[in-house]
Amino acid sequence: MTKFLEIQGLRKSYPTPDGKEVSTVFEHANFSIEKGEFVCVIGHSGCGKSTILNILAGLDEASDGLVLMDGKEITGPSLERGVIFQNYSLLPWKTTLDNIIFAVRARWPSWDKSKVEAHSKRYLELVGLSHALDRKPAQLSGGMRQRVSIARAFATQPQLLLMDEPFGALDALTRGVIQEELIKIWEESKQTVFMITHDVDEAILLSDRILLMSNGPKAQIAESVKVSIPRPRTRTDIIHDENYYKIRNHLVDFLVNRSKGLSGSVCDVKPDHQPLTVDLAAS
Ligand SMILES: Nc1ncnc2c1ncn2[C@@H]1O[C@H](COP(=O)(O)OP(=O)(O)OP(=O)(O)O)[C@@H](O)[C@H]1O
């Protein structure tokens, strides 16, 4: 069976500053994502998470390897892949509603004006922003701007949504509220999501599966941890699930104790390396 997203033998290397050698950020990255899956990736700073996300978006090129979406190679950006960055990237001269309309119109040029507007408003409603349609980004808080980015990305219904630490710049309270809005909008759309986060609790709340990257240089996708906590999930409920602390402790132990020893610069990683599947519910 063809997987929705297949990453085969991905490597990224850069020349060293003197230009005489190459430094390999990650290599032998092999993993796949099923249609409708929500996958988070966690790893220490510099291991190459954003580089992988940018390659999946078609915004960066791998030094080696292949990315296939629905069996077709990704060679550049496409409206089939939506990206949400930490810094919101809204058009500052357009209102909240016009920011969404702009993207929706680009996605479905044949739609008439009223259909585009109704569709755009519906997504703003899903993130609780119906009251701020006419405000410009500068008149919104950071949390509201990120809600607009989320509404815009989901409104264009890309086949794959890529999120690079979307809540990294938000305070903990705002972050919690928007995480739950993201769950709500995702549960409605069941879009396939690949998201980078540094926050283990956020990863457990949102993901079906968490990919753990070892440290760079020569980082690898070391493990694929199943989040066997039933949905729908809320921040307050998941901590009572019997698997919550098992998963959390496993992730923290990886980041604190094991991520360095699994780096390709320390141990031998074979080109056909597959991440170790971890299902703590079964243990
Ligand atoms: N143009 C470049 N030339 C040389 N090295 C680069 C270049 N761009 C990125 N790198 C290196 O690639 C590595 C991976 O960067 P990347 O941003 O993907 O890491 P990351 O895991 O997302 O980090 P963070 O969690 O801090 O955002 C870093 O060590 C970085 O220094």
Give the gist of this structure.
Keywords: ATP-binding, Cell membrane, Membrane, Nucleotide-binding, Transport. The protein is of the alpha/beta class. The chain contains 8 helices and 11 strands.
Poorly predicted segments: none
As a percent range, the share of strand residues is 15-25%
- Give the termini separation: 28 Å
Oligomer: single chain
Helical residue percent? 25-40%
CATH architecture classification name = 3-Layer(aba) Sandwich
Derived structural class: alpha/beta
Count every beta strand, where a strand is a DSSP E run of 2 or more residues: 11
Q: Domains counted in the coordinates: how many?
A: 1
CATH fold topology: Rossmann fold
Described by strand count, sense and barrel closure, the largest sheet is:
7 strands, mixed
Q: Largest sheet, order of strands side by side?
A: 6-7-8-3-9-10-11
Which CATH class is shown?
Answer: Alpha Beta
Bound molecules: adenosine-5'-triphosphate
Shape: globular
Number of helices: 8
H and E string: EEEHEEEHHHEHEHEEHHE
Please state the CA-atom Rg, rounded to the nearest Å: 19 Å
SSE layout:
Layout: E1 5-15, E2 22-33, E3 38-42, H1 49-57, E4 64-69, E5 72-73, E6 81-84, H2 96-107, H3 113-126, H4 142-155, E7 160-164, H5 172-189, E8 192-196, H6 200-206, E9 209-213, E10 221-226, H7 235-238, H8 244-258, E11 276-278
Parallel strand pairs: 3-8, 3-9, 6-7, 7-8, 10-11
Antiparallel strand pairs: 1-2, 1-4, 4-5, 9-10
Helix pairs in contact: 2-3, 2-4, 3-4, 4-5
The structure holds adenosine-5'-triphosphate.
